[in-house]
Amino acid sequence: MTAWLVVQAVILGIVEGLTEFLPVSSTGHLIIVGDAMGFTGERAKTFEIFIQLGSIFGVMWHYRTRLADLALRIHRPPERRFVLNLLLAFLPAALVGLLLHGAIKEHLFNPFTVAGALVAGGVVILLIERLPRRERVATLDAIRPIDALKIGMAQTLALFPGVSRSGATIMGGLVAGLSRKAATEFSFFLAMPTMFAATLYALYKDLGHLTGDHLLLFAAGFVTAFFSALVVVRAFLAYVARHTFVPFAYYRIGFGLLVLAYFW
C-alpha cells in the first residue's frame, strides 16, 4: 500500500464527513473526487460504503447524552414516543430499499443520474423555501407519528442516488410543519438506524472486498469521516437556527452541472 492511497483515503473521509449530513449529496461528491484522484473500482465502492460508519459514529457522539437518556428512560412515554417516531420514519425507506437495492445499484449509480438528482433536488429546495409555511412543531418531543411517517416517506426519495438523504428528510420535515432546527435534528437521529442498516447490508453484500491488506486505508477514511462529520453537525445546527437552505439549493444546482460537465 502506498502513502498516496492513504492520502486518498483521508481526503475521501473528509469529503464524506463534510457532505453526509448536509443537503448536498455525499454520493455526488465522492464520485467526482474519487474519479479525479483515480480512486475507482470495486474496492473504492466498498471503501465509500465503509467510511459512512465513521460519519454515523460522529453524529452519535454529538448526541451521546440524548442517546443515553433514551436508553435509560425508554420506559417513559416521551422517550417511547420518540423511538416509535424514529421507527415509523425508518420503515418506508428500509422496506423499499430492501426490495430495490439490486436494481438501484445496477441502473442508477452513475454520474449522470446523480447529476440530474443534484440539480432537481436544488430546484425542489428553492420551491419549498418559497412555500408559505406555519411552523407547528418546534421540538423533537412535539413530533407526531403522522409527521414521522411523512418524513419517512420523503426519505424513500433518497434511495435515488444524488437526492441526498438529509436533504429529503429535512425538506420533508419542513413540509410536515417542523421548524428548521427540529427537522434537522430529526434528520440526524433518523440517519443513525437508516445509515447503519444500509451500510451494514451493503458491506455484507460486498464482504469479499474487505481484506486485511486495506486495514490502514479503511481506518484512515473512517477516522477522518468521524471527525469531519462531528464538526459539520455542530456547525450546521448553529447555521439552521438563523438561515434558510437556499444557499445549499444553489450549490446543488451548480455542483450538479459541474458533475455533468466533468463526466460528459
TrEMBL record:
Any further remark recorded for this protein: Bacitracin is thought to be involved in the inhibition of peptidoglycan synthesis by sequestering undecaprenyl diphosphate, thereby reducing the pool of lipid carrier available.
Q: How does this chain sit within the bilayer?
A: Multi-pass membrane protein
Transmembrane intervals: 83-102, 108-128, 186-204, 216-237, 244-263
Q: What does the record give as EC number?
A: 3.6.1.27
Q: Name one GO cellular component term.
A: plasma membrane
Q: Tell me what this protein is called.
A: Undecaprenyl-diphosphatase
Q: Which domain of life is it from?
A: Bacteria
